[in-house]
Amino acid sequence: MKSRRLSRKGRRTTIVGASAAAVVAGVALIPNWTAGAAVTNDPTVDASTKATFQKLADAVFTDRTQALVDGSTSARTQHTKGFHGSVRLSGGQSHAQSSALGQLRARKNRLAKLGEKYSAGNTTVTLDATEVHGRNAKVAVTETTSLTYKPGTTSAKGPKTTGFQAHHELTFRAGRHGDWQLTGIKDTDDGYLAVNQVATPSAPKDDKPAASSDDGPPTAPRAATSYPAPANPKKLTGGTYDYKAMVAYAKKYWNHYNTAYPNYNGEGAGGDCTNFVSQVLKAGGWKHVPGYTNDYTKWFGTADIQSDSFVGVNEFSWFALSSKRVTPLANVYQADLGDVIQMDFNRDGSKDHSMVVTYRDSSGVPYVTYHSTNTYNRSVASLVASYPTAYYYAYRT
After folding, report:
1. Whole-number pLDDT of residue 181
2. Which of 112, 212, 311, 394 fits a 20 to 30 Å CA distance from 93?
3. What predicted TM-score, i.e. pTM, was given to this entire model?
4. Which is nearest to 103 in space by CA: 200, 204, 208, 223?
5. Dihedral of CA 315/206/263/293: which sign?
6. Coil, helix or strand for 335?
7. SS3 (DSSP) at 251
8. How many angstroms separate the Cα of 238 from the Cα of each of 81, 241, 244, 364?
9. What domains sit in the chain, N to C, each tagged with a CATH number?
10. Three-state SS at 148
């Protein structure tokens, strides 16, 4: 995931005037595309063809979700196998889909070893926009998926469901006889962090944090991912911060965006994950520390301007540690409500993604909520199973 990350020296994308207007209610809209209108430059792409594009996209992501469901018969009844003729998968995409389903079944087995199983899954796909150029078409869709934790498993001690919303761009090409084939699928969120996605998260190679020094930013120690973790209970009431308010804010805005802040998801904005986490913490009582935007010891965010530490993954870590507002946790499974977990996917020392804990079950498993890809109450066990080679960092707030 290309989360927003900024260098210590202030190398950053312009913050003021962000692309919030380009995203409405969390759904990425492609400029100059027609949403639901008839396409005039290719009469073969009528309303019926568009509906079939949408149904094929629904089948692709439904099959991927069902590959994670315990006892699912999706291997024998794949929805995509019912598409033949005028709209279907290309040979290359058929192979890619088979590979994805194999990876997801392996992920399901890793999750089961950690005590997490799903009894049911539901995926719906809506068509947002269509762009046609001759025999080539691009279709923007929104996927909304929920998974139900299986009763009798460790994960059943937590929330009943987990869910996410993701955005994709599908590429179709028409053959000589007018038959359309799905030739490509691209995730358009700034991240590949949906539980049914298999693409490897990426991070810019040219934006690494400066080396730590006596007067430089503090370095966060990595957190272990072994389960169970040593006990480290958190006092949730009577302290400085309102953790219930943090959870309530995350629940309210996980799948859409508070218009009081810019939205940095999509269109190369760098990702909205840390911006979202900062909003959650602010809702729970974190106070602004005004100053220059590129000073990591300052922290503030409004609709008009945000400090680097409010929106940047590494800068947030530097501010949180230097201000003593957080203390590092030795293990990700020690995290509790309102605590923050970060990930470094390629282990290059530069953090890539921020999440906030919104649930902790009785077996000691935290569940996180985040933007880019918008996700609610995903278990840490699921993250560890999906990204076992990543570095993890955990902060007690």
Report:
1. 94
2. 112
3. 0.81
4. 200
5. positive
6. coil
7. helix
8. 56, 8, 12, 22
9. 33-187 (3.10.450), 243-396 (3.90.1720.10)
10. strand
